[in-house]
Amino acid sequence: MRVAGRGIAILVNANAKRGGRRVAVQIGAVLPGANIRLTRDIAEVEGWLASLREVRALFAAGGDGTAVTLLTALDRVLPREAPFPAFGVLPLGTGNAWARSLGARKLDACVRGLARAHGPLPTRKARLFECDGTLTFFAGCGWDAQVLDDYRAQVAQSPSRRLAKSVWGYLAAVVLRTAPKTLLNARPHVLVENLADEAFAVDARDPLGTPRRLEGVGRGAILYEGPASVAGCATCPEFGYGFRAYPHAERMLGRMNVRVYDQSTLRALRDIPRLWQGAHPLEGTHDWFSSHVRLTFSRPLPLQIGGESVGERRTVELVMSPRDVRAVDWRRLDGDDLPAGERPDARGFGEHAP
Q1: Looking at the structure, do residues 270 and 157 belong to the same domain, yes or no?
Q2: What are phi and psi of 4, to 5 degrees?
């Protein structure tokens, strides 16, 4: 007899604001054959991973930070020659950038889609890079990290958490908190060094944004030196909420999209709609592709890795991971065509009263 979820292992973030423990129980009811573990720190995650046997797919139930934690722990536990199992994200966080980029919809639809899946899950290739000892799909210094700090502070202080944790809450943090701070400080300068054997650039004159190889640009070459409001890398096009901060990120699978945005605060506020949509070309954006870069700033700046603030850095090195990731492709695992009697409560997982 087939048991839904057999061979699937799911890490649930115990610290999730939508109720980690309650969500773990709800997932277990739909996927009784799954190995579900509620964890609070990376040591618990590594211990759980070391105990797993014959996993056909591994999932992180949480936000981007939970996915980054699980991927980093998996990289530490598995020998270099051992391949990752199929990896997926069950959206339980706030922005859910990586989950969205892989086509995930609501948590309950994803879980019930897994319950109906037979055999290997559909996957697509994805790549990660390392920053500060952590595997991730985006990281950066500047406004992006500052916005995350301001957004979280606003959520904590808001009388309406539902509104504060929406896209409008995010935009409010940008306009009311981050922008005033940046107006008081001059933009820092950044030096972007290519540490790989070659590099590619996105031609701003090309409406398609096709990457082209930079002739004569090798290890140690300077890709950019000048003012920067944001500087970072990504292999995922989104920052969450549909914000396509790195619209070119998936154009070259084996390389990171390195991006610098060098406009003033007032200009950035004016450009928010186009920045959000990932418009190209866009004045002030500079894009390259490389497998290894170093960013050196004129002063320490806040750093975010996978949407989590990790303090200030003056120098950041980012390098592609040799790991190949087979990411579960939710677009090919449809969870929306459930019979009417099987549809979950419209509020979804984690939104029920305890």
Answers
A1: yes
A2: -60, 130
Residue 189 lies in a domain: yes
- Report pTM: 0.86
Q: Tell me which amino acid residue 319 is.
A: V
| Pairwise CA distance, residues 48 & 14, whole Å | 14
Q: Using CA atoms, how far apart are residues 290 and 258, in angstroms rounded to an integer?
A: 7
Contact 102, 344 (CB under 8 A): no
- The beta strands (E) that lie in 23-79 are given as 35-39, 57-62
Q: State the CB neighbour count (10 A cutoff) for residue 14.
A: 18
Rg of the chain's alpha carbons, rounded to an integer?
Answer: 20
Check whether the bond before 247 is cis (ω within 30° of 0).
no
If one counts the domains in the chain, the total is 2
Q: Max Cα separation, the chain? A: 65
Question: pLDDT (tens digit, 9 = 90+) per residue, 143-179?
Answer: 777 777 676 666 667 766 666 566 766 677 777 777 6
Is 351 domain-assigned? no
Strand partners, 309: 304
Contacts of 284 (CB under 8 A, 6+ apart): 261, 262, 263, 267, 271
159 token code pair: 């009388």
Q: What angle do CA 59, 139, 184 make, to 5 degrees?
A: 140
Lowest mean pLDDT among 106-120, 126-140, 158-172, 197-211: 158-172
Q: Torsions phi, psi of 73, nearest 5?
A: -65, -40
Q: Give 304's strand partners.
A: 140, 309
Question: Same structural domain for residues 163 and 90?
Answer: no
Q: Please state, in angstroms and as integers, the Cα–Cα distance from residue 109 to each residue in 100, 113, 338, following that order.
A: 13, 6, 9
Domain containing residue 286:
135-323
Residue 260, domain member (yes or no): yes
* pLDDT tens readout for residues 232-242: 999 999 987 78
Position 352 in a domain:
no
Structure tokens given for 222 = 């300077």
